[in-house]
Amino acid sequence: MTDFNRRDTLKMSAGFALAAAAGGFSCIEMAKAGPIDVPTIDKLSVRVLVDGASDIFFKPQEVNGVKIEPGRSADSLRPLHSEWGLSLLLEPQRGDEKRTFLLDYGWTPEVINDNMELLKVDPSKIETLILSHGHFDHWGGLLGFLAKHRKDLPADLTMYAGGEDNFCQRYARAGQSELSNFGMLDRRDLAKQNVKLVLCESPVVIGGQAFTTGKITRSSIEKVLPNTMVEFKLKDGAGCNASHYLPAEMEGKIVPDEHIHEHATCFNLKDKGLIVISSCGHVGIVNSVRQAMEVSGVSKIHAIMGGFHLGPAPADYLTQVVSEIGKLNPDALIPMHCSGLNFTQEAQRQMPGKVLTTTTGSRISFGI
To answer: What are phi and psi of 352, to 5 degrees?
Structure first.
C-alpha cells in the first residue's frame, strides 16, 4: 500500500470498500511508497493535441537541442481546434522500445477526437493514460475519448492519476458569493470502460520510461493562486474520500482548491537531464521541478514545459517566480495553456534564448 500510518490506512480502506459496494472503485490501486528506479530514455516526442491557441503561420523553433515543429490539419477544409485546456501525446523511446502515453484530455471530447483525426494520431498505439489533476479542462474530453476509442485501446488499460483529490467535486466562482458546477470525474464511469486506476500519491514509474512526482512538497516562495473551489465529500461512490489525508472536520466542506494531489509527469533524457511536464502547476512549477529532482536524484534540468498557472499572477510575484525558475537553469522553457502571455514575456526578458512557444498541433522533440 503506502507509507500512511495504520489508522489512516484503515480509514482509507474502509472508504474504498464503501465506494466499491456502490460500484465506484473497481480496479483501483495505490502506488507503493518508497524509492523508485527512474528510467533513462533516449528520445521523447510530444504532440500538442489540445491547447488554447492555433497558428497556421507557426514556424519551426530550436533551443539547446529542443526542436518544435508546426502541426497541420490533414484536411485543409477542417482546421485544428483550440480550446482552454490541455492534452499531450507523449512518445518516449529507449533503445528500440517505444511507448505512447496520453496526458490529459482537454475540455471537450469533440476537440480531442477531431484533432487526433486531423493530426493522424493512431489511438491504437496509446498504451497508458495519465491525469494531472481534477480540473474539467484537463479531463472533460476523457469520457468522450473513451467512448469513441476504448475498443482500440489495450484490454488492460491503466490510468495514472495524482491521487484521491482528483475526484472531488469542483466549483467555479460565478460571482462574489455564487458558485457554478465545474465538474467531478466519477470513477464509476472509468470502471464502466474497464479502466484500471492507479493513484500516484507516491512517485511511480510509468511504462518503464516515465515517472511521476507523486504528491509535491511545497517548499518554494510559490503559492496557489485563486482558481476553483473544492468539496471534500464521498457519496454513493462518487466524489473523494479525504479521510486519509485531511482532518475529519473537512468532510463536506467547500473550500478554496489547493490541488493536494496534482502531480507532474517527468522523463530523464540520456546525457541531457530531466524533462518536467506540469499540466497546470497550481502547486508551483518550481516546487514541481524540485520534487522531480528529489524523486529522481537528477539535478540537471533539460526542459520545463506545460501549464504554469501564472496568467493571473501579480507582476511582482511573477517576476519572483521567473527568477526562481532561472535558478533551476533549464536548457529550455516551454510555457503552454494557463502559463499566461505575461509569463512568456517575463521569461523571455529574464531568460533570453531559452523560451520556446507552441501552438495546437505542434510537435516537440527531445534527443532527436
So the answer is: -60, 140
Average pLDDT, the chain: 92
Ordered alpha helix ranges (H), 85-131: 109-118
Neighbours of 192 (CB within 10 A): 15
Residue 75 domain flag: yes
Strands (E), 66-200: 66-69, 87-94, 97-98, 101-103, 128-131, 158-161, 169-173, 179-181, 196-199
Q: Which CATH number goes with the domain that contains 356? A: 3.60.15.10
Assigned domain for 20 exists = yes
pLDDT of residue 236: 85
Q: Is residue 1 in some structural domain?
A: no
Q: How far apart are CA 311 and CA 318, in angstroms?
A: 9
The domain in which residue 41 lies consists of 6-366
b/e per residue 290-304 (b: at least 16 CB within 10 A): bbbbbbbebeebbbb
* 118: helix, strand or coil: helix
**Higher-confidence position of 22 and 265:** 265
Q: For the chain, first and last CA: distance in Å?
A: 38
The count of other CB atoms within 10 Å of the CB of residue 233 is: 18
- Separation between Cα atoms, residue 325 and residue 281, nearest integer Å: 13
- 102 in a structural domain: yes
Q: Is the pLDDT of residue 158 over 50?
A: yes
Q: Which of 311, 356, 349, 352 is nearest to 332 (CA)?
A: 356
pLDDT at residue number 27: 63
Residues 281-318: tens digit of each pLDDT: 999 999 999 999 999 999 999 999 999 999 999 999 99
Tally the domains of the chain: 1
∠ CA 310-313-317, rounded to 5°: 110
When pLDDT is cut at 50, 70 and 90, the band that residue 363 belongs to is: very high
Per-residue pLDDT tens over the stretch 77-99: 999 999 999 999 999 999 999 99
Q: How far apart are the C-alpha atoms of 72 and 118, rounded to whole Å?
A: 8
Q: What is the largest CA-CA distance in the chain?
A: 60
